[in-house]
Amino acid sequence: MKSSLTELMQRIQDNSDQQAFQLLFDCLWEPLYQFAFSFLRDGGLAKDLVQEVWIDFWTRRKEIQNQNIQAYLFQAVRYKVYRELKGNRLVELCDKHLNSFFSESDNPNTILEYNETSKQMLQEVEKLPDKCRMVFELSRYEGLKNAEIASALGISVRTVENHISYALKILRKKSW
């Protein structure tokens, strides 16, 4: 199957062959959708993200250098899912924590201190190396298990554990 996917990709890149694109789409749409759905648990959103990946793929078809088109498309879906989860989850978590915090404390100084600390922590998380930050956010903000993160990112569970440990070590050094 890999060789036939490679041939389809070649036809798409060389000739903008829409029939080859349709065959590739038919072959990989469902697995890509299932992959996105396994993280998002929202069929409509998963469908939209996969469609965006296909649109991006067609737009950039001549620029793509990856020999394994299946891996490339799964990576693209993984990235879109990650960006979606990161954005939604951060907003949701901030709202949840702020609401519970504000209900427990009416002291303006405490609220100001909490906001400043949260802002500093998010800035420090953003400074982490990309892969480390991604693993940390999937673990802490998304609540994914180490095995799920490893599977999603194509790395070992031990590597996930190392990234999380490193991130926590860096964050603990900061005096909030």
**Major beta sheet, specifics?**
none
The rough form would be described as elongated
CATH topology of the largest domain: Rna Polymerase Sigma Factor, Chain: A
Helix residue percentage: over 70%
Strand content: under 5%
Q: Can you characterise this structure?
A:
The chain has 176 residues and is mainly alpha-helical. The protein is built from eight helices and no strands.
Layout of secondary structure:
Blueprint: H1 2-15, H2 18-40, H3 43-59, H4 69-104, H5 108-127, H6 130-140, H7 146-153, H8 157-173
Helix pairs in contact: 1-2, 2-3, 2-4, 3-4, 6-8, 7-8
Top keywords for this entry?
mainly alpha; single chain; Rna Polymerase Sigma Factor, Chain: A; Arc Repressor Mutant, subunit A; 176 residues; 8 helices; elongated; 2 domains
Please outline what is shown here.
This protein has 176 residues and is mainly α.
